[in-house]
Structures are given as structure tokens and as C-alpha cells.
Design goal:
Layout (H helix, E strand, L loop, with lengths): L3 H23 L2 H17 L9 H4 L9 H6 L5 H4 L3 H29 L5 H15 L1 H47 L1
Helix pairs in contact: 1-2, 1-8, 2-8
Bound molecules: zinc ion (ZN).
């Protein structure tokens, strides 16, 4: 597995290509920015390696603890964290649940203090309506950006392990020699 710094380098090298491709396909600066933003966020701190103590995990700062249950339930490089689409989808669901778990008591306390009306059902319905009516393209652009970020990580992992295997094969004769001399 490549180091966090190698993954970051791959992310930055990929960025101009992502921007160029997104702009070529959408011809819209705003959508391009959303794809690029999603890509960077996903590759730098929302990627597959949140399943271990990693650079991505550390970048969450004081909020990093929200990923502890995620790490507990998923083994490193499992299909649920590193798999295509499923990895990103599961992280989006997981983060949404975390935000809700924090927001529900926070709103309840604010309600107690402020005495205002708040209906979660109404809020959810309105949010879905707004996204479905006016921000469909933006939501899709964000999803694509997030997935591309995760994919850049998986490509890095794959290149890293392929290189390691190749190096091991090249070094095998000499290491075997060492082993037999120890015997
Ligand atoms: Zn990884």
C-alpha cells in the first residue's frame, strides 16, 4: 500500500485531468468546480483508508472519532471501504447518519432553549424536494467527484501492490539464497 504522501501526489497529478474532463463534458464552470471539489475532498479525507488510522482519518481533526465505529466494523481494504461505488456510497450513508445523530440532539437542545418549531420530517421532505427540483445536476456532479477521488485512491493501492509484487519477484533469488545460508 502506498504511503499517504504518495496517494496525495496521485490526487494532485489527477486533478488537472479531472478538471479538464469535467469541463469538456459539462461546459460549466460551476459543475466542474463541484466535481473537482468532490474529488479532492474524497481523495484527501473521505477516501477508502478511513477504515484504518491513516492520513485521511487524521485530517478530520477533532471530529476524527466519528470514524472509529467505521474502522471497527470494516477490515482494512474490505470491499465495503475499497469497493467501486459501494465504498463511497457506504461512506456517504455513514457520514449522513453521523450528522443526523449529532444534529438531532443539538436541534432538540436548541429547541428547548429557543422555543422554536422544528419538524424533521418536514425538513427532510423539503431538502429532497429542493435537490430533486433544482440541484439534480449538482448532486450528480458531487457524487461523480466523490467516486473519482475514491477511485484515484484504489488505483494508487493497486499500483503499489503490483509494484511490490514485481519487486518481490525480482528480489526472490537473492533472498532465498540468504535463507538457505542461514540454515
Ligand atoms: Zn487503501
Amino acid at each position: 500500500m502506498p504511503s499517504g504522501r504518495t496517494h496525495d501526489r496521485i490526487t494532485l497529478w489527477g486533478l488537472p485531468w479531472i478538471v479538464a474532463l469535467a469541463y469538456l463534458l459539462t461546459r460549466q464552470g460551476e459543475l466542474t468546480l463541484i466535481v473537482a471539489g468532490g474529488y479532492l475532498f474524497s481523495a484527501l479525507m473521505f477516501g477508502p483508508d478511513l477504515d484504518i488510522y491513516s492520513v485521511q482519518y487524521k485530517r478530520w481533526g477533532i471530529l476524527r472519532w466519528i470514524w472509529l465505529p467505521y474502522q471497527r466494523f470494516l477490515s482494512h481494504r474490505s470491499g465495503f471501504s475499497h469497493g467501486l461505488i459501494i465504498g463511497t456510497a457506504l461512506r456517504v450513508i455513514y457520514l449522513s447518519v453521523c450528522i443526523l445523530l449529532i444534529a438531532i440532539p443539538a436541534v432538540a437542545i436548541a429547541q428547548l432553549i429557543g422555543g422554536f418549531n422544528w419538524n424533521w420530517q418536514h425538513f427532510a421532505r423539503q431538502a429532497i424536494q429542493i435537490i430533486a427540483q433544482g440541484y439534480q445536476k449538482e448532486a450528480i456532479a458531487l457524487a461523480i467527484g466523490l467516486e473519482l477521488g475514491a477511485m484515484s485512491h484504489s488505483v494508487g493501492d493497486w499500483l503499489g501492490s503490483t509494484y511490490k509484487k514485481w519487486r518481490k519477484q525480482r528480489l526472490r533469488p537473492s533472498s532465498q539464497r540468504k535463507k538457505s545460508s542461514k540454515k
